[in-house]
């Protein structure tokens, strides 16, 4: 299975080689989509992970036992359909084509598998219909 894994980890674990452990001990294919360590040395990582369901479940248990807040997520952004006017502006900034709009219904569609959590679509939405799970770096 392929899914997204989001982790939030405390200061004391920011130097733990978590990605290495996921690959080496759980035989997962791991792609880092987004990583951040803020000024308080609190970190977040968003991964695409691929492997058996059992290996992923065991990896989550391992991460939690380490003290990391780790969870599988189905979607990185949320689109409020009540606010969205299907104007299409957000599709112009989505480089991976996770957002699309077109015939026959000209309704916005979102492909969570393609989304890399860049958050570029959020500020361009005039209706403020999009919210993101993964925060931007704190400067
Ligand atoms: S967060 Fe980035 S990749 Fe995901 S839908 Fe928005 S612009 Fe596209
Ligand atoms: S920019 Fe906002 S209102 Fe326009 S299609 Fe995207 S989510 Fe909908």
Automatic annotation (TrEMBL):
The keyword Iron-sulfur applies. PROSITE patterns: 4FE4S_FER_1, 4FE4S_FER_2. Coiled coil: none annotated. One of its GO terms (molecular function) is 4 iron, 4 sulfur cluster binding. It comes from the Bacteria. Residues 75-104, 106-136 form the 4Fe-4S ferredoxin-type domain. The keyword 4Fe-4S applies. SMART domains: NIL. SUPFAM superfamilies: 4Fe-4S ferredoxins, ACT-like. Keywords: 4Fe-4S, Iron, Iron-sulfur, Metal-binding. Ferredoxins are iron-sulfur proteins that transfer electrons in a wide variety of metabolic reactions. This is Ferredoxin. It comes from Alkalibacter rhizosphaerae.
């Amino acid at each position: 299975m392929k899914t997204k894994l989001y982790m939030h980890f405390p200061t004391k674990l920011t130097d733990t080689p978590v990605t290495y452990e996921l690959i080496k001990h759980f035989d997962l294919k791991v792609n880092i989509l987004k990583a951040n360590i803020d000024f308080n040395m609190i970190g977040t990582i968003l991964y695409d992970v691929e492997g058996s369901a059992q290996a992923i479940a065991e990896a989550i248990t391992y991460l939690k036992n380490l003290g990391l807040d780790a969870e599988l997520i189905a979607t990185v952004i949320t689109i409020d359909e009540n606010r969205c006017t299907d104007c299409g502006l957000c599709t112009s900034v989505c480089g991976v084509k996770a957002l699309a709009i077109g015939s026959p219904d000209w309704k916005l569609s979102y492909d969570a598998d393609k989304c890399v959590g860049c958050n570029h679509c959020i500020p361009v939405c005039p209706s403020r219909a999009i919210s993101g799970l993964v925060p931007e770096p704190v400067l």
